[in-house]
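Illustration 12: Protein ABHD18.
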Amino acid sequence: MVTVNLGMLHFVLDHVYGAFMHRAKITPPFFSRGWGGSKLELLERMINQLFPDAAGQNWPPCLIQPIWRTVWETRTACLREGIFRTPCDEELLNALPPESHSARVAFLAPKLVPPEKIACVIHLAGTGDHTFERRLRLGGPLLKENIATMVLESPFYGQRRPMLQYGAKLLCVSDLLLLGRVTIEEARSLLYWLENEEGFGKMGVCGLSMGGVHAAMVGSLHPTPVATLPFLSPHSAVVAFCDGILKHGTAWEVLREDLAAQTAAMTLEEVRERMRNVLSLTDVTRFPIPKNPNAVIFVAATDDGYIPKNSVLHLQKAWPGSEVRWVTGGHVSSFLLHNGEFRKAIVDGLNRLQWKENPL
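Figure caption equivalent — predicted structure in token form:
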């Protein structure tokens, strides 16, 4: 009788999928236009301002006023889509492609329940998640728990994708940092809007893979406690682009030539080291500990070909009080099969927060 190691099967599936997506040269690689020049320097400076020893770290969220249209409505629930101008300052706005200047959200909420009795979770996009549908399917069943779902379309994705960009393959390294920095700003503004303009009683933020890294950053930087729920997420983009499968889909030779034009000739190993230094800005362990670390739940996969276990445990150790839950599977299979575990983490994380007191 042949015994199959299911864990190895999941791990191999991730690598087969990764080879098909990133080694087969079916699509252009990541960063085919190089580092991003002065934009990269701007982003490095601005992200350094987010860390705990930076004077301006605890900046308040910007006010936004989304314009809404109703997509559908039933007796008990309503789905709306909204747009708002991204709340970034002028420097960031000038760095963004024009297509990304307006943010788009989908908002699925229960009716017949006062907002102070409703929790709302913002779902951030994983790599390649250009639409609202998958995240709405994840959040939809939570309506019966009086949990609303808000889905943010990332800059550089969906209708916000620059014309010259193919799919999720960002053109420059600076675009990756810009995507993260703007997503943080927009998500914090949406949390502020939900709490202060709409009066929701509890807030959370979640995301899969890259979306989970951004969710951890938002939960870390938001001025009030929010449930923070990273799913299948590393502690840093270094894990994906320097150590993991995405390194096979990165335009290393272009990046080497771009650096050589600016400085001296470099080996590929030196280029990879430069990438590590740049992407260390995405290391969530460098960000502040969230206001309520007990409401942080990581869901990780036992045999993830993209995210090694030690990356998840590294982040848990940096945030004492947070919890890691393990699901059996790889990155791709868990993404497809474990939505129930992700929903349970959302419910449990929100249950660890106090309801906001209703002002008299």
